[in-house]
Design a protein that fits this description.
This protein has about 240 residues and is an alpha+beta fold. It folds into 2 domains: about 100 residues, Alpha-Beta Plaits, CATH 3.30.70; about 120 residues, no CATH class. About 65% of the residues lie in helices and about 10% in strands. It has 8 helices and 4 strands. A 4-stranded antiparallel sheet has the order 2-3-1-4. The chain starts with a strand and ends with a helix.
Length: about 240
């Protein structure tokens, strides 16, 4: 969550440094960025190219300098944030504060809903993968029924017969995870290009990023575990040796 503190026009540098130090000393603030009037104008021109004519008709720069701050924690109570904003408003040199509380709360609610939907769909896909791998192993068990009978007759142990099927399930799970990672990479790489400039100023908010190394490892490990459990479940029901 971001809070923007707009400064008064022609604010002395000493007073500006005092406000910056006050923000940096606060335990609620993670980082502080100073945005000059020139930087604010340049950002507006980049985000809203269709409104260039309005700026050209104004002889002065209408954008004030500001400090952009990010809160250190996302789960801070609204009361704590409002107390912090009220205390900063009373400092000389701060003209206005922008904090869209309602908008942020709606975005957080949307984020929680998206996570819930993601977990729900992920659970369905996990169960589907489990049953698909289990059925594939079952078909292979039936296809190699005669080979299994021969192995039993020559004295093969239960572990010796089951290990190839377990390995097959693990390989299928790992391959499924790798294919999903490849598809996700293509989606993250090319979907923003498909949207093009239609996002406009939303590019500052919507960010398409690939999974981290930890997340990739967890996804592959999850595929291996699902493959192992799917094959183990099938063997327990259809391969009793």
């Amino acid at each position: 969550m971001q809070i923007i503190f707009f400064l008064e026009k022609d604010l002395p540098e000493e007073q500006r440094d005092s406000i910056e130090n006050r923000l940096e000393e606060s335990s609620l603030v993670n980082n502080v960025r100073y945005i000059s009037t020139e930087q604010a104008l340049e950002r507006f021109q980049q985000n809203f190219p269709d409104l260039q004519g309005i700026i050209e008709n104004i002889e002065i720069n209408p954008f004030p300098a500001s400090f952009e701050t990010n809160l250190a924690e996302e789960n801070l109570s609204p009361e704590t944030i409002l107390r912090f904003i009220q205390a900063m408003r009373e400092i000389d040199g701060i003209e206005d504060v922008q904090f869209n509380r309602d908008w942020v709360e709606r975005m957080q609610s949307l984020s929680r809903l998206a996570k819930a939907i993601g977990f729900f769909l992920g659970g369905i896909l996990t169960l589907a993968s489990f049953f698909i791998i289990s059925n594939v192993i079952r078909l292979n068990v039936f296809a190699r029924k005669e080979e299994i009978e021969i192995l039993r007759m020559v004295g093969a142990t239960n572990l010796f017969i089951r290990v190839p099927f377990l390995l097959e399930g693990i390989i299928l799970g790992a391959m499924g995870a790798l294919v999903s990672l490849a598809l996700l990479f293509l989606l993250v790489k090319f979907f923003p290009l498909y949207l093009g400039a239609s996002l406009g100023a939303l590019e500052e908010i919507i960010n398409f990023r690939y999974l981290s190394l930890t997340q990739i490892s967890m996804l592959i490990a999850g595929g291996v575990i699902i493959g192992f459990l799917g094959s183990l479940s099938c063997l327990a029901r259809f391969l009793k040796v």
